[in-house]
Amino acid sequence: MKNFTIKASLLALSLLFVSNTLFSQNNSDEDNRMKIRLGYTTENIHRQILVTVDDNTTAGIDLGYDSGNYQDLADDMYWMIENRKFLIQGINEIDATTTLPLGLHTSADGNNTISIEGLTNVPEDLQIGVLDTETDIFYNIKETSSFSIELPAGEYLTRFELKFSNSNIEDANLNSNGNANDQELGIEEVADNSVMELHYYNNIKSISIKNIGNQNIKSVKIYSLSGQQITVFNNINAVDQAVIQTNNLSAGNYILMVTTDLGNISKKVSVR
């Protein structure tokens, strides 16, 4: 009986703390906290999640501020905090260095859209985008409001991140003509004194890799700008240079990604 009384008291105190927290948030004279609402849309669901900047919170799990996701839906998106799923999270600071991991799962192959559905007290100069860590594409959803990506059915708990700077990341924004920006990454450094040249030549419909650093090339992948993998080439035996023919690519813009022992190198190219 004593143990039951202690547990009941602790539960009552916990509920009182949460109630007071929510009451103070909803009834303050002025709420100056930064808030970002993201939407996730598939053919099966529309979900909204929220992040709020609050001095009383941390980057970890905070009782009374973070709301867990306990629903079992076929498609869903959520914040990943300490490997757990949340629909609402509080964090003490958001700036250009902040990274907020996003998780999602989908029950069928198809289109997935992530959008901004509300911004409150967000600085004008703060970028907001979703980074696809598999393709290194930064989708600047503050400028475009949303982006869509074709994904196979499955769970993606580490692929996407909400970020607030696209420094050194390929930007997938569209220009006023609806075409991808013409900026290319060119030669990218993958390790000290070790670089690789990556080009696409339309006249011979081929990818050219100049392996200056003699990296072990594990694979070459081609992605659409929406993040869909078009094709992959494995077992690339190249000492200093390789040429890969891509005869079946339709005209358009693509991301080439070379995976080596030291990481990934990517470049946006235009196929004509």
Structural write-up:
- This protein is mainly β and 272 residues long.
- It has helices at 2-26, 141-144; strands spanning 35-41, 46-53, 67-68, 76-81, 84-91, 99-106, 110-120, 129-132, 137-139, 146-151, 154-163, 170-171, 188-191, 194-201, 206-210, 217-224, 229-234, 241-245, 252-260, 263-271.
- The strands form 3 sheets. Strands 1, 2, 3, 4, 5, 6, 7, 8, 9, 10, 11 and 12 form a 12-stranded mixed β-sheet that branches. A 4-stranded antiparallel β-sheet has the order 13-14-15-18, with no helix packed on it.
- The termini are far apart.
- Residues 1-16, 22-27 and 173-194 have low confidence and may be disordered.
Shape: elongated
**What is the typical, i.e. mean, pLDDT?**
81
Q: Main sheet?
A: 12 strands, mixed
Classification by helices and strands: mainly beta
Secondary-structure element order, N to C: HEEEEEEEEEHEEEEEEEEEEE
Number of helices: 2
Number of strands: 20
Q: What is the rounded distance between the termini?
A: 78 Å
Given as residue ranges, the uncertain stretches (5+ residues, pLDDT < 50) are 1-16, 22-27, 173-194
Q: Determine the fraction of residues in helical runs and give it as a percent range.
A: 10-25%
Task: Set down the secondary structure blueprint.
Blueprint lengths: L1 H25 L8 E7 L4 E8 L13 E2 L7 E6 L2 E8 L7 E8 L3 E11 L8 E4 L4 E3 L1 H4 L1 E6 L2 E10 L6 E2 L16 E4 L2 E8 L4 E5 L6 E8 L4 E6 L6 E5 L6 E9 L2 E9 L1
Parallel strand pairs: 2-5, 9-12
Antiparallel strand pairs: 1-2, 1-7, 3-5, 4-5, 4-6, 6-11, 7-10, 8-9, 8-11, 13-14, 14-15, 15-18, 16-17, 16-19, 19-20
